[in-house]
């Protein structure tokens, strides 16, 4: 009898409710906009420069403004989410993104173009924090990795869409497409609950339990998880007065090095630049840009699905090590391929090598 009860309990914890799936879908809609912003400049460079008579320096500034705006949005993202909640912060992020995409789509000069890119960057900066945190706070532990990875999946879907349709649609239409998920999220946020953890932080314990019950199902015993959330919140409140300098104590050196190191190396490995100027790189290598971008658009989503499947089976560390090795090998091969481009006889391998390694990078 006890064995049967244990099995029933195990089966119960493996279930995911429709509300949990719907909430995750609405939240990661913003991640699509994130991906669209990353890949937007890859296939629109020549058309934007031609239509608005921009120099290379002006377009480079346009491309980099999303990163600058993202830094500003990221600085305020945690404070905004803690003060106003995840839903309200995402509404603000959607407002920035929609306004920014519309400014780009309707731009008649460089000022409106840059302003739009900057606003989209601020929205993306807010999204980059709130989306994964919200997903992690509403999902049960046994599926948390897969659900959180859906953030990356939708980012790559955004990249794939702009890569593919950038071959056929104008840059203004592409900007409108980038704003569509934000409109979906603006409406969808009315129908999903606030994070149970945030409600507990605000002392709204009854609402926290009600939301948790809806997310886990009516038959699920939420008492242990609700108690765990409350204890965690109390501990975080007790540690809230700790100075940031305490992080730099010797006992935290290992964890701090790993955490900050992974974030820095992820940004400094060069994939952002490669993603933003894909079409140009294909042209420089002598490979048909349209074919290259279409192939890339077909690769990025299956690659993300593979990560979604493997993250809870293999764990984060093996996947990080595998991807780091592949990234290193691809960057070296790209450098060698461009280096021998003008060498007689050997230079013929450049287009093929660049196309293959570019696909591996993405």
Automatic annotation (TrEMBL):
Localization terms from the record: Membrane
Bilayer-spanning residue ranges: 20-42, 54-78, 90-112, 118-135, 171-192, 256-277, 289-311, 318-340
Name listed for the protein in its UniProt record: Major facilitator superfamily (MFS) profile domain-containing protein
Keywords: Membrane, Sugar transport, Transmembrane, Transmembrane helix, Transport
Secretion signal, residue range per the UniProt entry: none
Record-linked PANTHER family: PTHR48021, SUGAR TRANSPORTER ERD6-LIKE 12
InterPro entries recorded: MFS_dom, MFS_ERD6/Tret1-like, MFS_sugar_transport-like, MFS_trans_sf, MFS_Trehalose_Transporter, Sugar_transporter_CS
One Pfam entry name: Sugar_tr
């Amino acid at each position: 009898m006890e064995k049967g009860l244990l099995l029933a309990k195990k089966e119960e914890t493996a279930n995911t409710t429709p509300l949990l799936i719907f909430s995750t879908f609405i939240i990661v809609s913003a991640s699509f906009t994130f991906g669209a912003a990353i890949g937007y400049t890859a296939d629109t460079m020549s058309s934007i420069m031609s239509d608005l008579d921009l120099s290379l320096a002006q377009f480079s500034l346009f491309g980099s403004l999303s990163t600058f705006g993202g830094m500003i949005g990221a600085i305020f993202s945690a404070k905004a989410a803690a003060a106003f909640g995840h839903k309200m912060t995402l509404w603000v992020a959607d407002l920035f993104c929609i306004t920014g995409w519309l400014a780009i789509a309707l731009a008649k000069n460089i000022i409106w173009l840059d302003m739009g890119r900057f606003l989209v960057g601020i929205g993306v900066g807010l999204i980059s924090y709130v989306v994964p945190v919200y997903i992690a706070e509403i999902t049960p532990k046994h599926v948390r990795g897969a659900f959180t990875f859906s953030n990356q999946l939708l980012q790559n879907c955004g990249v794939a869409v702009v890569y593919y349709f950038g071959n056929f649609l104008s840059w203004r239409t592409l900007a409108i497409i980038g704003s569509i998920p934000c409109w979906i999220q603006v409406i969808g946020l009315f129908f999903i609950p606030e994070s149970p953890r945030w409600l507990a932080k605000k002392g709204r314990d009854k609402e926290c339990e009600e939301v948790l019950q809806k997310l886990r199902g009516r038959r699920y015993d939420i008492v242990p998880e609700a108690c765990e959330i409350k204890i965690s919140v109390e501990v975080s409140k007790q540690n809230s007065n700790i100075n940031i300098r305490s992080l730099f104590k010797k006992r935290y050196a290992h964890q701090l090095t790993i955490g900050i190191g992974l974030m820095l190396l992820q940004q400094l490995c060069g994939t952002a630049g490669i993603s933003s100027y894909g079409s140009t790189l294909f042209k420089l290598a002598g490979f048909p840009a349209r074919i290259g971008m279409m192939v890339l658009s077909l690769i990025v989503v299956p690659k993300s699905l593979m990560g979604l499947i493997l993250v809870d089976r293999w764990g984060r560390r093996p996947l990080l090590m595998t991807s780091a090795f592949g990234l290193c090998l691809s960057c070296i091969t790209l450098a060698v391929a461009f280096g021998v481009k003008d060498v007689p006889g050997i230079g013929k391998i450049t287009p093929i090598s660049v196309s293959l390694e570019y696909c591996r990078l993405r």
